[in-house]
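Students often ask what a 'structure token' actually looks like in practice. Rather than answer in the abstract, let us consider AcrR family transcriptional regulator, a protein of 261 residues. Its sequence is given first.
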Amino acid sequence: MTEPAPRSRRKRMTGKERREQLLEIGRTLFAERGLDGTSVEEIAAAAGVSKPVVYEHFGGKEGLYAVVVDREFERLLRLVADALMAGTHYRQKLEKAALALLEYIEESSDGFRILVRDSHGGTGTGSFASLLSEIASQVEHVLAKEFDRHGYDDKHAPMYAQMLVGMVALTGQWWLDVRKPKREEVAAHVVNLAWNGLSGLEPRPTLDPRRRHKERERLKRLREKEAAKAEKAQRKARRDQPADAPAPADHPFGTAPGPSY
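Now compare that with the structural description of the same chain:
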């Protein structure tokens, strides 16, 4: 078996390479143990360097933690902002933004675990709440345009933006550990609630507009079939009703409501 090269013969890392190595190691340890649970000694040992090297690059674990948080903060914010810009229809914008967050959680779980922790007071970095506020400000502009287009008062856009972002973020925190169902299905259900509301939920939500159209057509045919069946039953009941029977009482609220999708 080939013996490992002596330390003196190993390729030395450049300052930039060493910095990136320490950031990656710190990211993993902070996600697992948090800032307070991680020591400079552990970071240095995992990197195969002495403690002074960590201090040289970051001034200590707080400095390293601050850079890790800032990087993850900017990455997630950029992903969601790009998703909002990419969509053409407003529902599609919401779908892409929800999916972007879930993709980040799935592919950068360590980064998300760090972000959802309260930032350490001594780091000077933003908290998860401030990140959500930044994202909400992006959503606010999208909602304001949609509200204006429909004649709604756009002064409520900031409040609705906070509601939407909070819903998606909390769902993401839950999904971080359960990982079921798949992210596309989770995004479809989130948008189903956000777009349609509880009273108009789609039975089979999907991110595919063609499948959504087919589902709407299926439901339309089903409602037409149910209405025709009910009308047939009413005609039969009228035929079978004795001539001297009293007329049926009207429904107290008009026509009884059918299933709403």
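One point worth highlighting: Residues 120-124, 251-261 have pLDDT under 50 and may be disordered. Ask yourself how you might have guessed this from the sequence alone, and why that guess would often be unreliable.
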